[in-house]
Amino acid sequence: MAKASVEKAGMPKKISEQKGVSEFRLANNLKVLISENHSAPVATLLVIYKVGSRNEGVGYTGATHFLEHMLFKGTAEHNAEKGNSLDDLLTQIGAYWNATTWFDRTSYYEVVPTEFFELCVKLEADRMRNLRLRQEDHDSEMSVVRNELERGENQPEEALEKELYAIAFREHPYHHPTIGWRSDVEGVPMDRLREFYNTFYWPDNATVIALGDFKTEEALSVIDKYFGAIASAPSPIPQVYTVEPPQEGERRFEITRAGDMVRVWLGYHVPEAAHPDNYAVSAVRQILGSTYERSSRLYKALIDTSLAADVFARHDDLRDPGLLMVGAMVNPDIDPQKVEDILLNEIARLAKEPVSDEELARIKASNRKGTILAKADPSSLAFMLGEAESRADFTWLLNYDDNFDKVTKDDIMRVARTYFKRSNRTVGYFYPKDELSPEAYEEGDLEIDSAITDSDINEGDEEYVPAYVQGAIGADGEKNGLYSDSELKDLLTWQSTPVTIKFEKAKESDYLSKVKRVVLKNGLTLLLMNNPGTESLGIAINLRAGRYFTHGEPGSPSEMLGDLLSRGSKNFDKLKIAENLEEMGIPGGLEVYVDNYRVGIGTHLAVEDLPIYLDMVSDLLINPLLPVDELEKLKIEWNARYVESKNSTKSMAWNKLRQALYSEDHPFYDEDFDKQLKDLAQIDRQKLVDIHSRLYDPASMIVTIVGDIDLDKAHKLVEERLGAWTNAKAMATAERSVHIPETALPKNFQEIAVYLPEKSSLDIVLAHPCQVTRASSDFYATRIANAALGQDTITSRLGQVVRDRAGLTYGIYSGFSDTAFGGAPWSVTLTTNPANLKRAVQLTRATLKDFMERGIDVNDLEKERGRALGSFKVGLSSSLGIARVLTEFEFLGLGAAELDHISERYLTLTKEKVDQALRKYIHPDNAVLVASGTISK
């Protein structure tokens, strides 16, 4: 290996400063981008390596992604054995961190309280050249990476995307999926990964991006201190020289697999991100739109006509020429060819007739507003700069809006004629197998000792598994049996290591004094807080009108009402709502969510858009049209959703779990999907009008606005639009108290199997009803106990044993479904290869038992305390994040004052308190386990 460090050859050199972003070069040719943002005491560090799946070849596809996983396995200085690995340290400070791999790049990032910025720089610099890359880590991580691949294989969309790229690209490495081909993932040797690391992980093939609450000079000094001592690459970084030749005719393919609904996808070759035509291609993407862009052409042509349940247009800006993809999920009983014809006609229109002035102006306004909103969040801007670096150069992003504004109607017609030709397209269909429809699942008791083995899989069996799933099951056959006692003991042996970063005392905060709380005459609660310097705001609106208050009425009417709200009001029709939101930089539409107890609306806005947003939302809440034709369209969309759910291993597992845990009259019981489908027919407009009259009123409403606002002006805006609203028919606030019936724990551990055909990965859920509530005196102790057990798949106990040591899953978590009023499930969730079912369940239960007996480790208590405090600060780094927390605390009766006491709550916890809460609320032996997927009888 080449020498990893050198004496620094000189000071960093400033190259440019543009639009608030400063560019520097270190002596080793590392590119550094820094931008200050003082809206929150948070910093983001992002390291981009210009290596992705485009740098791979046959035999080692997926190597970049596999190596990304290996970068978390430690260096000589920072590793799990010492208790100071990157994951260990970042957990202690409550960081938000991860890594991603794509065609053109690999990126590693951390979002942390600003005081820990230097720690992140040190850790990233260390792993740039000092990885251990051990064989034992490779071996355990392979099955983790493979399970990530298998999870994707369960999804029709991922199967289509993989096949579309593979057929559209024959010579260029975009042919290969980023995660790699299965046999390469299973077979790539450690030496190949080491070679990849030593070829591409150097300062002169990387860009370090830092944004946050610091001074540029100080951040640069820290970056130079750690990265500046690393040598440049000893040899030139290999460049990709393969060029995809022009396509000479339409290509078509079909995928036939167990599934739910037909999908139709089209892909057209388009230029690279740096090409001048790229901006017009992006304009085409926005004009075509998606399911969530109701002013778009595809929505009007296919969703509004109930021909499709989902539509999209997607343009991946890539370093080399890529694809514009367009697709639809066809509604049942609709001819897929008709849907394909409409997709083709909409694309052909772009070449034949100019887009309207209104369309072009709207997408340009949306683009600029989106940039403003992204800049308000330092993390979002950092990621956008990173993508720009991988595609072209960071200036590509800084100049993007200006270049996009130059796009003309003639440009759009020209690129449509140039690129959207039959000879340049690939067409793919996904067809579900009739004989293996999702309705053919079987359920029954799951006996771990008889779970799937190689001998269960034989062609001609009733449950014959196709070749691509057989490969998954047979690839790791040695794990089919149960662990021996000695193997379990080794896996569960735990070395406690002291934390190195401690929060000794609570840092004082003063949210209570910053938040203006006003109750209007009609009972509406208004919370306002200034967060200057962002040119934006976050707004969160909450009504006490969730599922609980319509429990027992067939068809989930409260959710249907929430979905129908944005389909039109007295003064804003559906199209006008969509157009307004798009111009505000919110092309995804009005975000209305309905949970157990609340209906919520919220978003991130430019300050100037608050008046029109409040005009629109207030009219939707007070004067919704609830049109019959839109209700019927919505029922068709929901029908498709239920059909999809019946083929989803995750949805089916949770559905059967809730049926096993709760009685039919319990608020948390779930009807099976066939029953839910039938109940749709019972929802009519009058039922929704009645629910609106009963539940939508100002006395049950909270409006929170946080951002770069004048509090008095914001107060006046809300008062003018919502202050006069009254609803004499509404259920009295006193009648809206919540009483969740206490559900007894299962007397014994129960197991249920749900059979779904042709699934490469299983979903497993272990759960029981849990009585902890947000108001419980031991809530924080319970939260810390669960965090140490399974909040994070990398650093919590379940993840370290089942994922990291045993390699049985890509992700395992434990958590609470809803702690507002108790009674909702506490659960452990994981995915695994069907061949590993026995061991995954056995090891998960053994880990739970061990944790329950030992209780929380004192060092884990310190670690999770730090995680909770740091992540709370990171979570409040945006105005919308603050608005949502304030709204949540107001709803629960805690108020803004609780934000000022959270540090104290965590710092006063002891092992005794946490263990008491753990054993009071969590009972893994009195639970139900459901495994869903391709499981043999």
Automatic annotation (TrEMBL):
Listed GO molecular functions?
A: metal ion binding; metalloendopeptidase activity
Q: Name one Pfam family in it.
A: Peptidase_M16
Q: Which GO terms describe its biological process?
A: proteolysis
Q: Where is the Peptidase M16 C-terminal domain?
A: 190-366, 683-865
Q: What Gene3D superfamilies has UniProt attached to this entry?
A: Metalloenzyme, LuxS/M16 peptidase-like
Q: Where is the Peptidase M16 N-terminal domain?
A: 31-179
InterPro entries, alphabetized: Metalloenz_LuxS/M16, MPP/UQCRC_Complex, Pept_M16_N, Pept_M16_Zn_BS, Peptidase_M16_C
Annotated family: Belongs to the peptidase M16 family.
Q: What is this protein called?
A: Insulinase family protein
